[in-house]
Amino acid sequence: MKKIAITSEGPGLDDLVDPRFGRAAGFVLVDLENMNTSYIDNGQTQVMAQGAGIQAAQLVARAGAECVLSGYVGPKAFKALSAVKIKVVQNLEDGITVRQAVEKFKQGDFQFADGPNRESGR
Amino acid sequence: MIVAIASGKGGTGKTTVAASLSRVWERPLVAVDLDVEAPNLHLFLRPVIEESSAAWIETPVVDESRCNFCLACSDLCQFKAISVMGSVVLTFQEMCHGCGGCIAVCPQKAISPGRRELGQIGWGRAGNTQFLMGRLRIGEAMSPPLMRQVKSRLKDIIEATGRDAIVDAPPGVSCPAVNAVMGSDVIVLVTEPTPFGFHDFKLAWEAFSPLGKPMGVVINRAGVGDRKIYSFCAEMHIPILSEVPYERSAAEGYARGRIVADLSPEFRNIFVSLSLKIFELAAGSRVLEATHA
Questions:
Q1: CA-CA distance, A110 to A67, in Å (whole number)?
Q2: Domain carrying residue B102
Q3: What distances in angstroms separate CA B157 from CA B9, B31, B153, one per listed residue?
Q4: Do B61 and B49 belong to one domain?
Q5: Do B89 and B14 fall into the same domain?
Q6: Helices and strands in chain A: count of H runs, count of E runs
Q7: Domain end: B117, B140, B160, which one?
Q8: CATH classification of the domain holding B77
Protein backbone atom coordinates (compact mmCIF):
# COMPACT_ATOMS: atom_id res chain seq x y z
CA MET A 1 0.00 0.00 0.00
CA LYS A 2 1.36 3.35 -1.05
CA LYS A 3 -1.17 6.12 -0.67
CA ILE A 4 -3.54 6.65 2.24
CA ALA A 5 -6.07 9.41 3.01
CA ILE A 6 -6.69 10.69 6.53
CA THR A 7 -9.73 12.81 7.39
CA SER A 8 -8.31 16.05 8.70
CA GLU A 9 -9.25 19.42 10.11
CA GLY A 10 -6.44 21.05 8.11
CA PRO A 11 -3.93 20.52 5.32
CA GLY A 12 -0.87 19.29 7.20
CA LEU A 13 0.50 16.32 9.13
CA ASP A 14 0.24 18.23 12.41
CA ASP A 15 -3.42 19.09 12.01
CA LEU A 16 -5.98 17.16 14.01
CA VAL A 17 -7.81 14.18 12.60
CA ASP A 18 -11.42 15.09 11.78
CA PRO A 19 -13.51 12.23 13.18
CA ARG A 20 -16.12 12.54 10.42
CA PHE A 21 -15.60 11.03 6.98
CA GLY A 22 -18.27 12.46 4.68
CA ARG A 23 -18.32 15.84 6.34
CA ALA A 24 -14.62 16.07 7.16
CA ALA A 25 -12.98 19.45 6.53
CA GLY A 26 -10.57 17.71 4.18
CA PHE A 27 -8.29 14.78 3.49
CA VAL A 28 -4.51 14.66 3.89
CA LEU A 29 -3.12 12.25 1.33
CA VAL A 30 0.12 10.66 2.45
CA ASP A 31 2.58 8.79 0.24
CA LEU A 32 3.89 6.20 2.67
CA GLU A 33 7.15 5.71 0.78
CA ASN A 34 8.42 9.26 1.10
CA MET A 35 5.87 10.87 3.49
CA ASN A 36 5.00 13.48 0.86
CA THR A 37 1.55 14.95 1.49
CA SER A 38 -1.14 16.67 -0.47
CA TYR A 39 -4.51 17.99 0.64
CA ILE A 40 -8.05 17.67 -0.69
CA ASP A 41 -10.44 20.30 0.58
CA ASN A 42 -13.86 18.80 1.33
CA GLY A 43 -15.72 22.09 1.93
CA GLN A 44 -18.05 21.61 -1.04
CA THR A 45 -19.10 18.24 0.34
CA GLN A 46 -19.67 19.49 3.88
CA VAL A 47 -22.58 21.67 2.81
CA MET A 48 -24.45 18.97 0.86
CA ALA A 49 -27.91 18.13 2.18
CA GLN A 50 -27.32 14.47 1.56
CA GLY A 51 -24.82 12.18 -0.14
CA ALA A 52 -21.77 13.70 1.57
CA GLY A 53 -20.25 10.30 2.32
CA ILE A 54 -20.57 9.19 -1.28
CA GLN A 55 -19.07 12.38 -2.66
CA ALA A 56 -16.20 12.21 -0.17
CA ALA A 57 -15.55 8.63 -1.27
CA GLN A 58 -15.40 9.81 -4.89
CA LEU A 59 -12.87 12.49 -3.96
CA VAL A 60 -10.48 10.14 -2.19
CA ALA A 61 -10.89 7.50 -4.90
CA ARG A 62 -10.04 9.99 -7.65
CA ALA A 63 -7.00 11.08 -5.67
CA GLY A 64 -5.72 7.51 -5.78
CA ALA A 65 -5.99 6.63 -2.10
CA GLU A 66 -5.92 2.92 -1.31
CA CYS A 67 -6.93 3.26 2.33
CA VAL A 68 -8.90 5.77 4.42
CA LEU A 69 -8.25 6.49 8.10
CA SER A 70 -11.15 8.17 9.90
CA GLY A 71 -13.36 8.24 12.96
CA TYR A 72 -16.77 7.37 11.63
CA VAL A 73 -17.71 6.03 8.23
CA GLY A 74 -21.39 5.68 7.34
CA PRO A 75 -22.98 2.87 5.32
CA LYS A 76 -23.22 4.61 1.95
CA ALA A 77 -19.64 5.89 2.13
CA PHE A 78 -18.51 2.42 3.14
CA LYS A 79 -20.33 0.88 0.19
CA ALA A 80 -18.82 3.42 -2.19
CA LEU A 81 -15.28 2.90 -0.84
CA SER A 82 -15.68 -0.87 -0.96
CA ALA A 83 -16.78 -0.67 -4.60
CA VAL A 84 -13.32 0.52 -5.55
CA LYS A 85 -11.61 -1.67 -2.96
CA ILE A 86 -10.42 1.19 -0.76
CA LYS A 87 -9.77 -0.15 2.70
CA VAL A 88 -11.16 1.62 5.77
CA VAL A 89 -9.67 2.13 9.21
CA GLN A 90 -12.17 3.74 11.56
CA ASN A 91 -12.60 4.59 15.24
CA LEU A 92 -9.44 6.74 15.31
CA GLU A 93 -9.17 8.14 18.81
CA ASP A 94 -10.16 11.75 19.48
CA GLY A 95 -7.56 14.47 19.48
CA ILE A 96 -4.72 12.77 17.61
CA THR A 97 -2.90 14.42 14.74
CA VAL A 98 -2.69 13.17 11.18
CA ARG A 99 1.00 12.37 11.77
CA GLN A 100 0.19 10.24 14.84
CA ALA A 101 -2.46 8.37 12.86
CA VAL A 102 -0.01 7.68 10.04
CA GLU A 103 2.66 6.46 12.46
CA LYS A 104 0.21 4.08 14.10
CA PHE A 105 -0.88 2.85 10.72
CA LYS A 106 2.74 2.17 9.69
CA GLN A 107 3.35 0.26 12.90
CA GLY A 108 0.39 -1.94 12.05
CA ASP A 109 -1.65 -0.83 15.07
CA PHE A 110 -4.88 -0.63 13.08
CA GLN A 111 -7.32 -3.17 11.76
CA PHE A 112 -9.27 -2.76 8.57
CA ALA A 113 -12.99 -2.39 9.11
CA ASP A 114 -15.43 -4.87 7.63
CA GLY A 115 -18.46 -2.60 7.93
CA PRO A 116 -19.64 0.93 8.64
CA ASN A 117 -19.65 2.18 12.23
CA ARG A 118 -22.13 5.00 11.86
CA GLU A 119 -25.74 5.36 10.85
CA SER A 120 -26.61 7.21 7.70
CA GLY A 121 -26.81 11.00 7.85
CA ARG A 122 -24.89 11.40 11.10
CA MET B 1 -61.32 27.25 -3.78
CA ILE B 2 -58.59 25.27 -2.07
CA VAL B 3 -58.16 25.96 1.64
CA ALA B 4 -54.96 24.68 3.27
CA ILE B 5 -55.10 24.07 7.01
CA ALA B 6 -51.51 24.43 8.20
CA SER B 7 -49.52 25.17 11.34
CA GLY B 8 -45.96 25.57 12.46
CA LYS B 9 -46.20 23.49 15.59
CA GLY B 10 -47.62 19.99 15.42
CA GLY B 11 -50.61 19.08 17.55
CA THR B 12 -52.22 22.52 17.49
CA GLY B 13 -55.44 21.27 15.93
CA LYS B 14 -55.06 21.15 12.13
CA THR B 15 -57.06 17.96 11.85
CA THR B 16 -59.66 19.18 14.36
CA VAL B 17 -60.19 22.26 12.20
CA ALA B 18 -60.00 20.41 8.86
CA ALA B 19 -62.51 17.75 9.96
CA SER B 20 -64.90 20.26 11.51
CA LEU B 21 -64.75 22.59 8.52
CA SER B 22 -65.42 19.64 6.21
CA ARG B 23 -68.49 18.83 8.29
CA VAL B 24 -70.04 22.29 8.07
CA TRP B 25 -68.83 23.34 4.59
CA GLU B 26 -71.88 24.36 2.62
CA ARG B 27 -70.53 23.85 -0.89
CA PRO B 28 -69.57 20.52 -2.53
CA LEU B 29 -66.26 19.50 -1.06
CA VAL B 30 -63.29 17.23 -1.31
CA ALA B 31 -61.39 16.71 1.93
CA VAL B 32 -57.71 15.92 1.44
CA ASP B 33 -55.17 14.57 3.88
CA LEU B 34 -51.78 15.74 2.65
CA ASP B 35 -50.02 14.94 5.91
CA VAL B 36 -48.83 11.77 4.22
CA GLU B 37 -46.26 10.95 6.91
CA ALA B 38 -48.96 10.66 9.55
CA PRO B 39 -52.40 10.84 7.94
CA ASN B 40 -55.27 10.96 10.43
CA LEU B 41 -58.11 12.92 8.86
CA HIS B 42 -59.79 9.63 7.90
CA LEU B 43 -60.04 8.69 11.58
CA PHE B 44 -62.54 11.53 12.00
CA LEU B 45 -64.31 11.74 8.65
CA ARG B 46 -64.47 7.90 8.46
CA PRO B 47 -64.74 7.75 4.70
CA VAL B 48 -65.54 4.62 2.74
CA ILE B 49 -62.31 4.13 0.79
CA GLU B 50 -63.45 3.07 -2.66
CA GLU B 51 -60.08 2.65 -4.24
CA SER B 52 -56.44 2.72 -3.31
CA SER B 53 -53.37 2.47 -5.49
CA ALA B 54 -49.63 2.49 -5.08
CA ALA B 55 -47.67 5.61 -6.03
CA TRP B 56 -44.21 5.26 -7.52
CA ILE B 57 -41.17 7.35 -8.23
CA GLU B 58 -38.86 6.76 -11.18
CA THR B 59 -35.36 5.67 -10.20
CA PRO B 60 -32.37 4.67 -12.36
CA VAL B 61 -31.44 1.14 -13.42
CA VAL B 62 -27.99 0.94 -14.97
CA ASP B 63 -26.88 -1.47 -17.66
CA GLU B 64 -23.17 -1.55 -16.82
CA SER B 65 -22.34 -3.33 -20.09
CA ARG B 66 -23.27 -0.13 -21.96
CA CYS B 67 -21.68 2.29 -19.46
CA ASN B 68 -18.34 3.89 -20.31
CA PHE B 69 -18.01 5.52 -16.86
CA CYS B 70 -18.05 9.03 -18.30
CA LEU B 71 -19.41 10.48 -15.00
CA ALA B 72 -22.17 12.51 -16.69
CA CYS B 73 -24.88 11.04 -14.43
CA SER B 74 -22.69 11.14 -11.35
CA ASP B 75 -21.81 14.81 -11.86
CA LEU B 76 -25.43 15.75 -12.54
CA CYS B 77 -27.02 14.09 -9.52
CA GLN B 78 -27.21 16.59 -6.63
CA PHE B 79 -28.08 13.83 -4.21
CA LYS B 80 -25.41 11.27 -5.13
CA ALA B 81 -28.16 8.75 -5.74
CA ILE B 82 -26.14 7.63 -8.75
CA SER B 83 -22.38 7.66 -8.36
CA VAL B 84 -19.59 6.33 -10.51
CA MET B 85 -16.73 4.89 -8.48
CA GLY B 86 -13.95 3.87 -10.87
CA SER B 87 -15.57 1.30 -13.10
CA VAL B 88 -18.53 0.63 -10.82
CA VAL B 89 -21.82 2.52 -10.98
CA LEU B 90 -23.50 2.67 -7.59
CA THR B 91 -27.14 3.59 -7.23
CA PHE B 92 -28.71 4.48 -3.92
CA GLN B 93 -32.39 4.06 -4.75
CA GLU B 94 -33.66 5.52 -1.51
CA MET B 95 -31.82 8.80 -2.13
CA CYS B 96 -33.23 9.36 -5.63
CA HIS B 97 -35.62 12.28 -6.03
CA GLY B 98 -36.89 10.91 -9.34
CA CYS B 99 -35.91 13.84 -11.58
CA GLY B 100 -34.93 11.56 -14.48
CA GLY B 101 -31.84 13.69 -15.16
CA CYS B 102 -29.40 10.78 -15.20
CA ILE B 103 -31.50 8.92 -17.75
CA ALA B 104 -31.70 11.99 -19.97
CA VAL B 105 -28.03 12.91 -19.77
CA CYS B 106 -26.49 9.46 -20.36
CA PRO B 107 -24.77 9.50 -23.79
CA GLN B 108 -24.62 5.70 -23.84
CA LYS B 109 -28.32 5.22 -23.12
CA ALA B 110 -27.21 2.87 -20.37
CA ILE B 111 -29.80 4.01 -17.81
CA SER B 112 -33.43 3.01 -17.90
CA PRO B 113 -36.26 3.85 -15.53
CA GLY B 114 -36.98 1.56 -12.60
CA ARG B 115 -39.24 2.47 -9.73
CA ARG B 116 -39.53 2.75 -5.98
CA GLU B 117 -42.82 2.71 -4.09
CA LEU B 118 -43.58 6.00 -2.36
CA GLY B 119 -46.76 4.92 -0.66
CA GLN B 120 -50.47 4.65 -1.29
CA ILE B 121 -53.09 7.06 -2.56
CA GLY B 122 -56.63 6.33 -1.42
CA TRP B 123 -59.91 7.96 -2.28
CA GLY B 124 -63.54 7.54 -1.40
CA ARG B 125 -66.48 9.29 0.22
CA ALA B 126 -67.61 10.48 3.62
CA GLY B 127 -71.29 11.27 3.12
CA ASN B 128 -71.46 13.94 0.43
CA THR B 129 -67.81 14.84 0.88
CA GLN B 130 -65.27 13.29 -1.43
CA PHE B 131 -62.17 12.12 0.35
CA LEU B 132 -58.57 11.83 -0.83
CA MET B 133 -55.43 10.90 1.09
CA GLY B 134 -51.82 9.82 0.72
CA ARG B 135 -49.96 7.49 3.03
CA LEU B 136 -46.16 7.39 2.82
CA ARG B 137 -44.55 3.93 2.78
CA ILE B 138 -42.84 3.14 6.07
CA GLY B 139 -39.13 3.74 5.56
CA GLU B 140 -39.64 6.19 2.70
CA ALA B 141 -37.87 9.48 3.42
CA MET B 142 -39.39 11.77 0.79
CA SER B 143 -42.96 12.93 1.11
CA PRO B 144 -43.16 15.75 -1.50
CA PRO B 145 -43.12 13.38 -4.53
CA LEU B 146 -46.11 11.49 -3.09
CA MET B 147 -47.83 14.75 -2.15
CA ARG B 148 -47.45 15.97 -5.74
CA GLN B 149 -49.24 12.87 -6.97
CA VAL B 150 -52.06 13.34 -4.46
CA LYS B 151 -52.33 16.98 -5.56
CA SER B 152 -52.44 16.01 -9.21
CA ARG B 153 -55.36 13.69 -8.42
CA LEU B 154 -57.00 16.55 -6.51
CA LYS B 155 -56.63 18.77 -9.56
CA ASP B 156 -58.43 16.16 -11.67
CA ILE B 157 -61.28 15.97 -9.15
CA ILE B 158 -61.61 19.76 -8.97
CA GLU B 159 -61.59 20.10 -12.74
CA ALA B 160 -64.21 17.39 -13.11
CA THR B 161 -66.53 18.46 -10.30
CA GLY B 162 -65.76 22.09 -9.42
CA ARG B 163 -65.64 21.17 -5.76
CA ASP B 164 -63.89 23.19 -3.08
CA ALA B 165 -61.05 21.47 -1.24
CA ILE B 166 -59.98 21.48 2.39
CA VAL B 167 -56.42 20.29 2.75
CA ASP B 168 -55.03 18.98 6.02
CA ALA B 169 -51.35 19.93 5.68
CA PRO B 170 -48.34 18.46 7.49
CA PRO B 171 -46.92 20.49 10.40
CA GLY B 172 -43.67 22.40 10.27
CA VAL B 173 -42.23 24.81 7.73
CA SER B 174 -40.01 22.55 5.62
CA CYS B 175 -40.56 21.17 2.10
CA PRO B 176 -43.63 19.04 2.87
CA ALA B 177 -45.47 21.89 4.62
CA VAL B 178 -44.68 24.41 1.89
CA ASN B 179 -45.60 21.84 -0.74
CA ALA B 180 -49.00 21.37 0.87
CA VAL B 181 -49.93 25.06 0.99
CA MET B 182 -48.37 26.06 -2.33
CA GLY B 183 -51.34 25.24 -4.54
CA SER B 184 -53.97 26.64 -2.18
CA ASP B 185 -56.05 29.81 -2.49
CA VAL B 186 -56.27 30.51 1.25
CA ILE B 187 -54.03 29.41 4.12
CA VAL B 188 -55.52 28.92 7.58
CA LEU B 189 -52.86 28.74 10.28
CA VAL B 190 -53.93 26.86 13.37
CA THR B 191 -52.06 27.74 16.52
CA GLU B 192 -52.40 27.71 20.27
CA PRO B 193 -51.66 30.68 22.54
CA THR B 194 -48.64 29.07 24.21
CA PRO B 195 -44.96 30.09 23.90
CA PHE B 196 -44.23 27.04 21.69
CA GLY B 197 -47.34 27.64 19.63
CA PHE B 198 -46.44 31.30 19.15
CA HIS B 199 -42.81 30.55 18.28
CA ASP B 200 -43.71 28.05 15.57
CA PHE B 201 -46.62 30.16 14.35
CA LYS B 202 -44.20 32.98 13.56
CA LEU B 203 -41.96 30.57 11.64
CA ALA B 204 -44.92 29.35 9.60
CA TRP B 205 -46.15 32.86 8.93
CA GLU B 206 -42.65 33.89 7.76
CA ALA B 207 -42.31 30.78 5.60
CA PHE B 208 -45.69 31.11 3.90
CA SER B 209 -45.87 34.92 3.56
CA PRO B 210 -43.73 35.03 0.41
CA LEU B 211 -46.36 32.89 -1.34
CA GLY B 212 -48.58 35.97 -1.27
CA LYS B 213 -51.75 34.10 -0.36
CA PRO B 214 -54.41 35.34 2.01
CA MET B 215 -53.70 33.96 5.47
CA GLY B 216 -55.84 33.86 8.56
CA VAL B 217 -55.44 32.39 12.01
CA VAL B 218 -57.44 30.00 14.13
CA ILE B 219 -56.50 30.07 17.78
CA ASN B 220 -57.23 26.67 19.26
CA ARG B 221 -57.28 26.03 23.01
CA ALA B 222 -58.09 29.70 23.48
CA GLY B 223 -57.89 30.58 27.16
CA VAL B 224 -54.59 28.88 27.97
CA GLY B 225 -51.16 30.48 27.73
CA ASP B 226 -50.68 34.17 27.10
CA ARG B 227 -51.71 37.02 24.77
CA LYS B 228 -48.54 37.24 22.63
CA ILE B 229 -50.14 35.70 19.57
CA TYR B 230 -52.97 38.23 19.75
CA SER B 231 -50.70 41.26 19.91
CA PHE B 232 -48.47 39.87 17.15
CA CYS B 233 -51.46 39.33 14.83
CA ALA B 234 -52.77 42.81 15.60
CA GLU B 235 -49.39 44.36 14.89
CA MET B 236 -48.90 42.45 11.64
CA HIS B 237 -52.54 42.81 10.51
CA ILE B 238 -53.08 39.06 10.36
CA PRO B 239 -56.78 38.35 10.77
CA ILE B 240 -57.81 36.04 13.62
CA LEU B 241 -60.68 34.15 12.02
CA SER B 242 -61.85 32.27 15.06
CA GLU B 243 -61.05 30.99 18.51
CA VAL B 244 -61.80 27.47 19.66
CA PRO B 245 -62.08 27.49 23.44
CA TYR B 246 -59.98 25.22 25.59
CA GLU B 247 -62.52 22.68 26.82
CA ARG B 248 -62.19 19.20 28.17
CA SER B 249 -65.14 18.02 26.07
CA ALA B 250 -63.23 18.84 22.85
CA ALA B 251 -60.26 16.73 23.93
CA GLU B 252 -62.52 13.87 25.00
CA GLY B 253 -64.44 13.97 21.73
CA TYR B 254 -61.22 14.11 19.71
CA ALA B 255 -59.79 11.15 21.60
CA ARG B 256 -62.88 9.15 20.64
CA GLY B 257 -62.49 10.08 16.99
CA ARG B 258 -65.41 12.50 16.97
CA ILE B 259 -65.56 15.68 14.95
CA VAL B 260 -65.46 18.68 17.28
CA ALA B 261 -68.10 20.53 15.24
CA ASP B 262 -70.49 17.67 16.09
CA LEU B 263 -70.01 17.94 19.84
CA SER B 264 -72.32 20.86 20.55
CA PRO B 265 -74.24 23.64 18.75
CA GLU B 266 -71.69 26.10 20.17
CA PHE B 267 -68.77 24.27 18.58
CA ARG B 268 -70.68 23.88 15.35
CA ASN B 269 -71.33 27.63 15.22
CA ILE B 270 -67.64 28.35 15.65
CA PHE B 271 -66.84 26.36 12.53
CA VAL B 272 -69.79 27.64 10.51
CA SER B 273 -68.63 31.16 11.27
CA LEU B 274 -65.04 30.17 10.43
CA SER B 275 -66.14 28.84 7.04
CA LEU B 276 -67.87 32.15 6.29
CA LYS B 277 -64.77 34.10 7.35
CA ILE B 278 -62.66 31.96 5.02
CA PHE B 279 -64.95 32.85 2.10
CA GLU B 280 -64.63 36.52 3.06
CA LEU B 281 -60.86 36.24 3.32
CA ALA B 282 -60.65 34.68 -0.15
CA ALA B 283 -63.07 37.23 -1.63
CA GLY B 284 -61.35 40.12 0.13
CA SER B 285 -58.01 39.26 -1.35
CA ARG B 286 -59.51 39.18 -4.81
CA VAL B 287 -61.00 42.63 -4.28
CA LEU B 288 -57.63 43.83 -3.01
CA GLU B 289 -55.82 42.40 -6.02
CA ALA B 290 -58.32 44.09 -8.31
CA THR B 291 -57.76 47.47 -6.66
CA HIS B 292 -54.01 47.12 -7.05
CA ALA B 293 -54.28 46.09 -10.70
A1: 12
A2: 57-117
A3: 30, 11, 6
A4: no
A5: no
A6: 4, 5
A7: B117
A8: 3.30.70.20
Closest CB from A50, A58, A83 relative to B79: A50
Q: Is the ipTM of this complex over 0.85?
A: no
- Say yes or no for a CB contact (<8 Å) between A54 and B88: no
Give the nearest partner residue to A80 out of B77, B81, B85, using CB atoms.
Answer: B85
pLDDT at B280 over 70: yes
In angstroms, the CA B50 to CA B72 distance is 45
Kindly state which CATH superfamily the domain A3-106 is placed in. Answer: Dinitrogenase iron-molybdenum cofactor biosynthesis domain (3.30.420.130)
Residue B293, chain A, CB below 8 Å: the answer is no
First to last CA, chain A: 30
Q: Looking at the partner chain, which of A49, A50, A58 has a beta carbon nearest the beta carbon of B83?
A: A58
Question: A48, B74: Cβ pair inside 8 Å?
Answer: no
Question: A104-120: b or e for each residue (b if 16 or more CB lie within 10 Å)?
Answer: bbeeeebeebeebbbeb
Q: Are residues B225 and B176 in the same domain?
A: yes
Across the interface, whether the CB atoms of A51 and B86 are under 8 A apart is answered: no
Cβ contacts of A56 on chain B, cutoff 8 Å: none
| Residue B153 to residues A24, B18, B40, B83, Cα–Cα distance (Å) | 44, 19, 19, 34
Q: What is the pTM of this model?
A: 0.83
Query: Which B-chain residues 248-267 have CB contacts (< 8 A) with chain A?
Result: none
For the segment A44-72, the average pLDDT, to the nearest whole number, is 93
Structural domains in chain B (count): 2
**What are the chain B neighbours of A54 within 8 Å (beta carbons)?**
80, 83, 90, 92
Q: Does residue B12 sit in the same domain as residue B157?
A: yes
All structural domains of chain A with their residue ranges: 3-106
Sign of torsion, CA B79 B82 B84 B88? positive
Sorting pLDDT into bands at 50, 70 and 90, what band is A109? confident
**The predicted structure's pLDDT at residue A115:** 84
Output Rg (C-alpha) for chain A, integer angstroms: 13
- Say yes or no: B205 and B279 in one domain: yes
Is B173 in CB contact (< 8 Å) with chain A?
no
Rounded to an integer, the average pLDDT of B212-235 is 96
One domain, residues B218 and B231? yes
Q: What is the distance of C-alpha B119 from the center of its chain?
A: 15
Kindly state the helix (H) or strand (E) to which residue A41 belongs, with its residue range.
strand A37-41
